[in-house]
Input
Amino acid sequence: MSDDDAGRTGGAPPIDPVTLAVLSGRLEQIADEMDATLFRSAFNPIIAEAHDASHGLYHAATGDTLVQGKQGLPIFVGVMSFAVRAVIAAHDERGIEPLDGDVWVFNDAHLGGTHLNDMRLVRPYFRDGRLFCWLASVGHWHDLGGGVPGNYNPAATDAFMEAVVIPPVRLVRAGEPCPDIRAVLMRNTRLPASAEGDLNGQLGALDLGVRRMDALLDEYGAATVDAALAALADRAEVLMRDAVASLPDGTWEAADFLDNDGIVDEPLPVRVALTVAGDRLTLDFDGTAPRARGPVNIARPTAIATAYVAIKHLFPDLPANAGVMRPVDMRVPDGCLLAADFPAPVGGYTETILRMIDVVFRAMARAAPDRAVANAYGTINALSLAGRRADGSPWVMFSFFGGGHGAAADGDGLNHGNAPISTATIPPVEILEAAYPIAFRQWALRPDSAGAGTHRGGLGATYELEVLGAGATAFLFGERGRHAPKGVAGGGDATRNVFTYDGPDGPAHPPMASKMVGIPLARGGRVRLDTPGGGGHGPAAARDPAAVAGDVAAGYVSPAAADRDYGTIWRSAP
Amino acid sequence: MTRIAGVDVGGTFTDVFLLDEGTGRATVRKVPTSRPDQSEGFLAGLGDGVDGLTTIVHGTTAGTNALLERKGARVGVITTQGFRDVLEMRRRDRPRTWGLRGIFVPVVARPDRLEVPERTLADGTVEVPVDVAAVGTAARALLDAGCTACAVLFVNAYAEPSNEAAAVAAVRAVWPNPHVAASHEILPEIREFERFSTTALNAYLQPELSAYLERLSGALTAGGFGGEFLVVQSNGGVMSAADAGRLPVRTALSGPAAGVIAAAHIATEAGYPDVITGDVGGTSFDVSLVKDGVAAQAAQTSIDFGLVIRAPMTEIATIGAGGGSIAWVDRGGLLNIGPESAGSTPGPAAYGRGNDRPTVTDANVVLGRIDADTPIGDLPRLDADAAGRAIDAHVGTPLGLSREDAAEAILTVANARMAGALRLMSIERGHDPTRFAYMPFGGGGALHACAMLREVGIGRAVVPRHPGVTSALGCVIADMRADQVQTLNVALDRLDEGDLAARVEVQRSVGQARLDAARIPFDGVDLLVELDMAYAGQTHTVAVPVFVLTRAAIADAFDMTYRATFDRLLPGGVRRVMNLRTTVLGRRPRFDLSLLAPVPGASLDGAAKGTRRVHLGGWHDAAVLDRLALPVDAVVPGPAILEQPDTTILVEPGFAARIDRFGNAILERT
Output
């Protein structure tokens, strides 16, 4: 499709600043209202409570993000435009034109980023018979077939072992629903009622988006809204160029490692070279490991979206549209861990994108130490326990765990936070214990887990739980068991992730550090996760001795660790 | 005859609404809030003696302020072995989505959180009986450390409280004051962080709040007051001052909730039971939604990051766009309003107190919508030129706009943000905002009312007679409420009907006893029973009102509520009952709002005060009228300004204001 076909106005006419300011808010609100509509109507708590979903408006010709809702998960800011691009490409490949009332659906992560649980719906929005923009909705569905319920399969060596793979297809054609496609979707999930609810909720959100766009264009006219969208992207570009120009010119590198891919026990390097040249930024991931056998690969769209997440954490006031990425060059070698081809397994993508963020932060800290925060705990620690109750009924507990945030130039890191790519909260102990035959023996901060520094990292946590039922089988998919979260600007590293389980001969650790499947646990058997804290910021010697003494008094830092990291001067602090 | 006083103590003003049902006279007073002891202003506001009053109802922000300023007591916590950090770990969230900066300082420091051996399992089994001697030792250690309040926080105490009950008894045996509570006493509901946080914050507020209320109570008694002293809760119901001293955590949104109660009552009486309220304050715009005369309720709130209070409360959404919000142009050339605010100190540039950045109020002053010579409240004359200079420097020059156009731009953007808050609040609750009326209150709300109608497509705005003292009026109106919760967590087909009925009866009698303890008249007492329910495997519940306590009737009620929320049921799903909630509601006599109506003999001519130049797109000569002197059924077409001591109503061209029989000003399109 050409720009002309898309009905857009080419070079944006000037728009008055007041209308621009108003339209900026109105357009954002359309996306926010789409978010709110799905959160309210979704059946599945991953969407309803954890807000694992997102909505936005995308450019008619390019699929670039125009506006994105503020309530969805951070990782979706940036990844959604790839879903739209995949649908635009599907039109080109098949030689078809978008029709008013079409809705496309797919979950192929190699086209749309993230993982196969994220079901993407894309709908062309027409005005006066011409394509004005695209609307899209993504939501994490509970189950889409594959090797294990919930689709988190640490043993997957290709996408087919993870979930059913749906390419971009039309769920609705020119307003006419295609029951065939819906039937395929519903036959490929273990939880069809949940999936029906989520699908209807996403369709409802798109409907609301269409109604809101109609009203907005009635009020302001298509040309004005078009001009506003163009101006907002230009403004984002200006802000980003401004932010980059505030950094010194030069190239800074950082490298880190994933422990392994869960199948082959070899470290996987993730490298970045960050180059600032005037108001342009280049992120070059050359030197990163090739595609892995196990599910720690990510698709190229995920890599680009992750760079956006890292940049927005570094410059939190930047808007959420594609203009931000115009001054950014991304270089990701074909076929590497960060641009793995189909059907490479990507289910553990969270671990890899966290490591990407870590290396970008560290490279940035070398360029501008005040701008970057130290590394956060850097692993999602997906832990699953499954067994049978006394009455024979099966149970499966699945949860992600937290850790410490990195310190910054202006303060210590947060104790026990969530991952930078997410905003999800952790379930309460009492909800987990009421649902499954388990008891937590410890749910506590982990002393000495944070990196030392002028500002200390936040503490990780210790979670220890005991199986009360007849026994269970556990699996863990985590990281940072061999390579600790790093400090920046001279700050110290945090403590590594440690997983311990009751083996036949006493406490044991997985051979691959933080990844293991099929761990047998008898009644009374325990597993324990000691998660990393965040890295420190600035040299430990510069930390206020009174703050060290306070840390020791609170038990965040042991006296021995304080002596080692900070010297003994804290002992004479007031 | 009864004489009732509602007293709302806010950050700047203490508002009093006095109702004498004998003479049919209502009196409104506004005095400065006294600091640090708010009771002085409270008593000054009541003025001419309290001996004739039958009831005094208090809306307070003392609890919220103590939390925001972290000025509560030193609290000690005694908790289950292995769980001392629950309060600090929260639910693994972070202060802001983007940036990864910021920490959380819990209200109880880590050394003041002590563990004791004990454990109850989720099914109520006591796995490890509590070591009472260890509890006593811990309590003495906390006292020695200087703690003045104590919270006992045991895992699964909602399911079986015996360990916690034994422990809290042991603490009370050695603790020298009554500021001791166990989590099952405050909130016997599943989810340990929410229960622990609510209990700990209650302990944090208890010493100061109970002392404040006792001081007030004593002063009132000394002044000859022999009636009942009540406090508004965050859910808009009232409770006795003694209960408030014991449960201060339930007063966190006391004043704002009272305002919404008043709004709901006034709008319903005026014939608009579906209304969205908007309170324009100095730093924020607060929105609430009233459907069928009832304010939307939230299950919990965070007063600040990590300071979670779980208790039923009036839902109030806040955005940073108030009169003091600062307008600025970012480096990308976009005009923004807030979130930074000049507040009331130093305040808008027009106050001349050192702020030279333009605010929403400055824009209203420059455009003549606020009269610089006679501002509301007790402010001195405003400096319109200073407001104009601030707008020129920070908005006009960067955007190439004239002073008036820049001021209009500020209001356009501010109005768009406020309208967005109205829309989002209704969409999130599943409502179409155009089917609602809009009620502005607070000092600044009525300046922006016509703009809200235009922006959101709402049909009419209802401006109450005394919008600046709405919360004090709500104190007089609010019903008495006693709310209780108990987690059941049982599949519906295993629910013991007899046990449920017995639990409801226990909660009802406890609630009734609280009502009886207050010697005030009720028109009637209602019992409301709700069950939080979901399908097995779901963690988000729906609140299901139930009237018949049988499994079959509960199943039907659940299906009806669930279908209304999600448009469908889950075939084959197992229904679960998570919590039982009861409300015992003492309906207080509603006074006749026509007491507030304009006096007979008022006339349009008598209300006229001349004209003023007001900028609305261009300069207009707007009629200026004394709002309180307008007669019933008077119609004032825009452009016009209706003035009164506590607010200014802007009637834009294309709109008209009509005075209804209660003295409300109804703004509608002409």
Notes: Chain B has five domains: 3-67+210-251, 71-209, 325-414, 480-587, 594-669. Chain B is about 30% helix and 30% strand. The first helix of chain B runs from residue 38 to 46. Chain B touches chain A through 71 residues (CB under 8 Å).
